[in-house]
Amino acid sequence: MPYKIDTLIPHQPPMRLVDEILSVDAAASRVKTCIGPDFLFLRQDGTVAPEAFCEIIAQSFAACESKRRELAGLSTEGGGYLVNIRNFQFFSPARCGDELITQVVQQDDFLGTRIVKGTVFCQENKLAEATVYIFMWEGKEPPTSL
Questions:
Q1: Which domains does the chain show, CATH number per domain?
Q2: pLDDT at 141
Q3: Residue 140 — φ and ψ, nearest 5°?
Q4: Omega of the bond prior to 143 within 30 degrees of 0, cis?
C-alpha cells in the first residue's frame, strides 16, 4: 500500500526529493521519486546531479522509518540528519520525467546512527548506490550528548 511522505519527514519542496512510500518492510523498503522540471538537483542538460542520489537515499530511509514507527503505534516525533556517505557508486544519470525507485535496507544501528544501504533504480537500471549514515533521535530536540 503506498503512503504519502509529506507528513513523515520535515523536508518541504524543493528540498523534499521523495514522493511516496511504495512498501515498508523490516528487511527492505521502497520509495518513489518523480523527477519533474522543478526538481532541485536538475541540471541544465536535463540530468540529475549525482550527489542528489545520496540525499534521496537518506530521505527514503527517514520516511520509511517514520512510517514503520507510526504503523507500530510509536511516536514519530524526532528527527535526523545525514552524517556520512560511504561506497557511493554512480552508474547512470536520471533525467527529467524519470520515475525512480529507491530501495533502502538498514544494516546496523550504532548509538543512534543508522547505517543504511540504498540503491536507486529507474525501471530495471541501477543508477546509483551508497551506504549512508543517518543520526536519528526521538523527541523534540536531538540529544546534547550520547
A1: 3-138 (3.10.129.10)
A2: 73
A3: -70, -35
A4: no
